[in-house]
Protein 1
Amino acid sequence: MQETAADFRQLWSEIGVDLELHDQLLASLDRVFTHTHLWQENRPASMSLFDKAFHDSHAGRVAEIASYRRNGGKSIGTFCIYVPDEIALAAGVLPMPLCGGSGWAVDHADRMFPRDICPLIRSTFGMSFSGTCPYKKLKEYAVGETTCDAKKKAWDLVGFPSLEVPQKKNQIDRDLWLSEVERFRGEMEKLSGRTITAEALAASIRLVNDKRRLLSRINGFRMLDEPPISGLDALLVSQSALNMDVTAFNAAAGTLVSELEERAAGGVSAYPSPGPRVLFAGSPSPMGFAKTHFVVESAGLRIVADESCTGMRYFRDLVDEGASTLGDMISAIADRYFSIDCACFSPNRERMENVGRLVGEYRVQGVVHSILQYCHGYDIEARALDKALAGMPTLKIVADYGEQDEEQIRVRVEAFREVLAGRAV
Ligand code: BJ8
């Protein structure tokens, strides 16, 4: 049955959403989305599926999860791509990423958090504190993780349990991580009252790997001289991958792949004119935030690769599907997530190598460091990345979710475009 606007209002009201403030939030999200995405003239037609996912994140997806829970299902909130979705899904628990991307919500976090922490955290908790996060009451609890200091301390304040993510990559750290993944499995089994079987885990590993394979195919088209999908739209696809039901996402992504194949065969570009090819590196851009991508692409550069957690870090590695016992599958999952190269790791050589590889594969001419304000890990690590990139032109943009600095950023991006254009001659 197709829900109406009145059905959604009824649902929001039932789950404790402040309707008046939520209207303000939705109006802000719509306005920002129109501004950042809908100016593009040659988008693939099937991007409409992901535009819908954006709008459904406060409507249709909320209704799906509410219905799942009414039928006895459990759900948890997550904030980081270290949380192994496969294990939750195998236990019948829906993981829901809760990272906020709305600038409107940022100031609502002030009653508990200092202002000088990253906007991702402030936006997430701003939605929660203002009663505008529709997922707040649609979960048993949220799972934090020990990545950056701001997140770690935030979980303490609000009382969320967290997974311990090590900060180094030695054997002792891998052993600790495996024990955390095993603990997570126990927690999910306890929550759902269901024992995870090898069959269920093998199925969820395949399902989530399929999502990663589809994301890889979509992003692979960006290697072409004429990318048939823009960096802005590739970002929206990744953001949707985090929010949508996995099976529904895989179906939509398959439709997009077919269209991109046709566009690629016909030499159809998503861009009105050629421009320098750049790689995005740094902090994630949760759904609702695309300011930096927007300014860069509307200034005539083409973002052909994005190494962030809302880009390739999310889908780059697969879980090995060769294991047959439950223990080996858990170990394979631990290995896959342990290979994530977040800036919370020190040293973080894997990230340097991964970015270096992308630079070659996607034939980029420059790198844009996109850093969320007060995200010290990625901000400081930008220096190490510059060194590893050995002379490749880079531009560092440190930004919050506000719109007031767009024109200042644009001036710097345009100057960077001229630098890259000059080197291409
Ligand atoms: S694996 S990037 S999703 S921690 S932007 S809250 S790092 S101060 S989100 Fe992240 Fe996991 Fe790492 Fe990825 Fe802190 Fe930086 Fe804010 Fe961040």
Protein 2
Amino acid sequence: MARVRGIDLSFDDVGAGAPVVLLHGFPFDRSMWRGQVEALRGEFRVITPDLRGHGESGLADGPATMEEMARDVAALLDGLGIGRAVVGGLSMGGYVTLAFCRLFPERVSALVLADTRAQADTEEGKRTREENAERALREGMEPIASSMIPKLLTAAAAAERPGVLESVRRMILRTRPEGAAAALRGMALRRDQTDLLTLITAPTLVIVGGEDGLTPLEDARLIQGRVRDSRLAVIEEAAHLSNLERPGEFNSALLDFLKDCRDGGALTA
Ligand code: MLT
């Protein structure tokens, strides 16, 4: 646990080597990266925080904007004595990664954008966020879990790997409604980042589940088409939580990318 910017931020910091920060999606926590941490820790230092309002981290009043979360990550890195790092995130974690990249471009050695998008919410999307925020505060996380789960994993994975489904469900139900509501309101406020993409010079890996209906392949292609030094990995037979659904393929794409960055000299401090 670290005290940053007036809140307690919980995180794991394991392994040794060039630092890699992985940011979880909504409404999850750092435990969603367990499989990636195990795959990377032999060669990299992997830092996985619980973003504010999620997991064991604290929360302040008001919307938890992507910029607030990005500043928390920067403060955490300051506390750990880390200047530059690979920064990556899945979905909301990707929104925070883009916000981090806009605020602190010099601190990003490479980027990983998984199952995410650069565009802001539509007006209708913003209204739905507010409805969901109010619903979470009124009724708890059960309705959020029930409406999200069918979109997070493919039907095949949900049927064949009930353990994964159950762990996702438990992760959502552990999230405090106040934290979820703050993040929903923060996501609704997020800016369009498409103009940032052409300015990114850090090597970038874009990953997407081929069957992701929440942040579909076309969103990943938009990012990859605009970021100069980027590659796209499509994880077949995976939906939104591609890292949990197909950890083998996801980890290979991630490790190959990180090793290429390291061997090419991009990850030096
Ligand atoms: C996530 O997985 O972080 C969410 O689906 C992101 C979103 O709601 O836009």
